[in-house]
Amino acid sequence: MMKNVMTLTKPSLQTSTVIPDLGSDQLTDIQRPWVVIVWNDPINLMSYVSFTFQKLFGYTKEKANALMLDVHHKGRAAVSQGTREKAELDVLRLHQHGLWATLQRD
Amino acid sequence: MAGMIITQLEEDKYRVEITLWQSQLFSNLAYELRESIAKKNSPLVQRLFPIAYPDDMTANREFESLIQKELLQSHLSALEILDSVSEVEEFHEAGLVRLMQAINIVRIGLGTRLDIRHEDDFYDITEGHPDHDLWVIYQILGEVLSLIVEALQL
After folding, report:
1. Interatomic CA distance for residues A92 and A102, integer angstroms
2. Are B107 and B130 in contact (CB under 8 A)?
3. Residue B27 to residue B37: CA distance in whole angstroms
4. Is B128 left (phi over 0), alpha (psi -120 to 50) or beta?
5. Is B153 in Cβ contact with A51 (below 8 Å)?
6. pLDDT tens, A76-100?
7. Residues on chain A touching B49 (C-beta within 8 angstroms)
8. Which of A26, A32, A40, B19 is 20 to 30 Å from the Cα of B147, by its Cα?
9. What pLDDT, in 10s, does the model give residues B88-131?
10. B139 phi/psi in degrees, rounded to 5
């Protein structure tokens, strides 16, 4: 899904270029990263979830365990963030490992 | 109860020993899950194909149209490993990770069949319960999964 890729081209001085007036809300919206959320489920083992975070994201065992415990106790944890493309790739990889992951704007 | 032995031979080499009944069990479970996956929209495999955009069905449909094949292929190729565990003399780490993924998705399928929605649901599944055998297999897969994670963490 490549919808939000912005291509910036240098406007020609000889042509009339209309630069849209983006309000501060819109600018903020564009800058807000996408966040990948992993949700608690009663089937996946805690050790498996922690290991998957280490393997997929290169997190230390301590950080992965902390995220896993957030998932377990709080019901969800934000495990990665970035562009929409990166977040979607992360979600796919988590789904491939059987984890329940979603993405949303921060 | 797990009955599986994993020995790390070298940094990236593992030997996985399983019994004949485990080999048959893995193969049967893989077959059953493949059958469920082949039936489109089977509730038994819903957890293997989660919704990525719960608040935006249009975005979700687009996402699914892009990744569904890849996710399906990933699950199916992981399941293939379960048909031949006893024949593989040595696993590289990547192979052991695939085996771990395969065991996990089969376990998710079983957990869905058992309708496990809360972590303490299985306390109701005592001997004599119609799902008891399935629950025992679910427990065995949990132990096997723990063993693999432990071996990979070392």
Report:
1. 9
2. no
3. 15
4. left
5. yes
6. 999 999 999 999 999 999 999 999 9
7. 95
8. A40
9. 989 999 999 999 999 999 999 999 999 888 776 666 677 888 88
10. -65, -40
User: Is B122 in the A-facing interface, judged by CB distances under 8 Å?
Assistant: no
Residue (of B14, B17, B23) closest to B4 by Cα position: B17
- Element at B134 (helix H, strand E): helix B132-153
Residue at token pair 């897969």:
B141
What whole-number distance in Å separates Cα of residue A38 and Cα of residue A71? 7
Which of B100, B119, B152 minimises the CB distance to A42? B119
Q: What is the pTM of this model?
A: 0.85
Which residue, chain included where needed, has tokens 């988590």? A94
* Residue B3's pLDDT band (cuts 50, 70, 90): confident
Compute CA distances A38 → A51, B60, B70, whole Å.
Answer: 14, 16, 20
